[in-house]
């Protein structure tokens, strides 16, 4: 569920930057409704399916209109409750720090995915995370 939370935050931030209004996007809406796009409800998700869902459905609901329930349920999104829309997105190549710098500096907040599968990361709690066997994917 972490990726979906961050995706909601990036979408809220982009909307604020564009309009000056900070919406509260329903994470539950994204959990419930992005499974057909390849996400796994409370078991995790990816960024692109969230953007595709918001784009295809012309929005995502507010937290107030689609309350968090701590479990995946059937999608109940109603377009009239939409608080944020998406007209497009850019996928930055893995490991391209310069492209990320340009995107954040000129376009919008970014969602960044990381490999959180290592036990050292899952139980991390303080300080600078450093995993000696972790690869950044750059040769």
From TrEMBL:
<comment type="similarity">
    <text>Belongs to the peptidase C1 family.</text>
</comment>
<dbReference type="Pfam" id="PF00112">
    <property type="entry name" value="Peptidase_C1"/>
</dbReference>
<dbReference type="InterPro" id="IPR000668">
    <property type="entry name" value="Peptidase_C1A_C"/>
</dbReference>
<protein>
    <recommendedName>
        <fullName>Peptidase C1A papain C-terminal domain-containing protein</fullName>
    </recommendedName>
</protein>
<dbReference type="GO" id="GO:0008234">
    <property type="term" value="F:cysteine-type peptidase activity"/>
</dbReference>
<dbReference type="InterPro" id="IPR013128">
    <property type="entry name" value="Peptidase_C1A"/>
</dbReference>
<dbReference type="GO" id="GO:0006508">
    <property type="term" value="P:proteolysis"/>
</dbReference>
<dbReference type="InterPro" id="IPR038765">
    <property type="entry name" value="Papain-like_cys_pep_sf"/>
</dbReference>
<feature type="domain" description="Peptidase C1A papain C-terminal">
    <location>
        <begin position="1"/>
        <end position="139"/>
    </location>
</feature>
């Amino acid at each position: 569920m972490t990726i979906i939370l961050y995706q909601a935050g990036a979408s809220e931030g982009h909307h604020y930057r564009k309009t000056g209004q900070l919406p509260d996007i329903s994470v539950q809406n994204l959990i419930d409704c992005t499974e057909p796009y390849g996400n796994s409800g409370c078991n995790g998700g990816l960024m692109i399916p969230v953007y595709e869902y918001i784009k295809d459905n012309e929005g995502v609901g507010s937290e107030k209109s689609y309350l968090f329930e701590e479990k995946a349920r059937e999608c109940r999104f109603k377009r009239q409750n939409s608080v944020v829309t998406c007209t497009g997105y850019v996928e930055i190549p893995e490991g391209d720090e310069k492209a990320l710098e340009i995107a954040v500096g000129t376009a919008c907040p970014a969602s960044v995915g990381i490999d959180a599968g290592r036990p050292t990361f899952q139980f991390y709690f303080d300080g600078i995370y450093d995993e000696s066997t972790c690869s950044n994917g750059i040769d």
